Amino acid sequence: MCWADLLVLPATPYWLVAFSFAALFRHLCALGCLSLTARYKFLLAGGCLLAGTTMGSYAVLLLIPATSSVLVLLSVSPARAHAWVFALQMSWQTLCHLGLSSQELDSQDARPAVTLSAIMLLTQKTTSLALDIHEGLVPLQQGQGVLQRALPLCSYLLFFPALLGGPLCSFSRFRAQVESSGALPSALRAAGQRCLCALALQGLRVGLAGRLAGRQGCTGLGCLPHAWVRALLLRLAYYWHWVLDEALLEVAGFGPEAGQGDLSVHDLWTLETTHRLAVFARTWNKSTSRWLRRLIFQRCPAQPLLATFAFSAWWHGLRPGQVFGFLCWAVMVEADYRIHPFLSIRATSQGMKLLYRGTTWVFTQLIVAYILVAVETESFSMLCLLWTSCNSILPLSYGLTLLLLAKKLKQN
């Protein structure tokens, strides 16, 4: 069972309640029954209730860093806000990852996985908010009581529609959406379309899973299509998760701006048809990609690409499969930047262009499958089996090509 299944399937009853709670919130806002302060309290109370019901006692692991981050933001100067919040949140998240992974937990208990996912999303929001304050995009209100200043921040970090899923929205957009009240029918229509899309994705995934279950084992090069189908099932699970996340946000009135969500029809088409691994990396989980670009890539003076993927491995938990998978992804993207310019200028005729795009699309699909399977690998022994299988042929070829092209460029 993949990470997306662990997050959604056990929490499905609570998600149904969350959808009803979101519709109630939007309806009360549209009727003008809730003041601005009451809206913040409603969202915060819903988040605490959802955390308690889905995570149980593990919810404390989420509430502690959320409260601590708010206290830090209200206490330190804007110039130091980001450094303090980043150190606090990543230290706490790393301790939670290491602590929960070292314990012998019930494999059927999804609460630790749900808690870790919520803490990772909290890291996105706290660091994004701290950067906004550091850069002067969000001035903190002065002359108000501590509770009045803390309420919007706590509500942003824990509001229930985004507690268990993304996409990430800025604090400025969150505050603007809380202050406004749109028409409920349009939100329900958009949410309904996303739910139908999620139903179609789940139906496709169930059908593919049934076909894969009928094929036991593989040998040699026959493992390549087997790994591709397995990775496709993983991608469909994540697509399903992201569509449901955005549907819940739509119902509550916090739908992302056009092009700012994690998955649109255009994004889905791009992910499944692109022949460029770099394009896939930018489109996959778009709000997280933008967050990583802002947090690491744009602020790293040396090797920003490698630093971004290394930090992503740290953020995801530093399991062997995650470290290997994300570092491999960084090398593959760097190779992609060098290989495609080299090949595209040599594809002059229409037939050569079709051959170039078709071949590189297959290569991209197989490499993405290899990376996803590696990231989802739990144990070091399974990772060694993946490394010694035929699935490693293409990643090794890309890595070797990167070395050759880099050496040729250096000689020139």
UniProtKB/TrEMBL annotation:
Named from the GO MF annotations, one term is: serine O-acyltransferase activity
Any Pfam family the entry gives:
MBOAT
Biological process per Gene Ontology, one example term: lipid modification
**Superkingdom classification of source:** Eukaryota
- Please identify the protein, giving its name as recorded: MBOA4 acyltransferase
Protein's UniProt keywords contain Hydrolase: no
Q: Where in the cell is it found?
A: Endoplasmic reticulum membrane
Query: Per the record's keyword annotation, is Isomerase included, yes or no?
Result: no
Membrane topology value: Multi-pass membrane protein
Taken from the UniProt entry, a GO cellular component term is: endoplasmic reticulum membrane
PANTHER family listed in its UniProt record: GHRELIN O-ACYLTRANSFERASE (PTHR13906:SF3), PORCUPINE (PTHR13906)
- Supply the alphabetized keyword list: Acyltransferase, Endoplasmic reticulum, Membrane, Transferase, Transmembrane, Transmembrane helix
Segments spanning the bilayer are 14-35, 42-64, 150-171, 354-373, 385-406
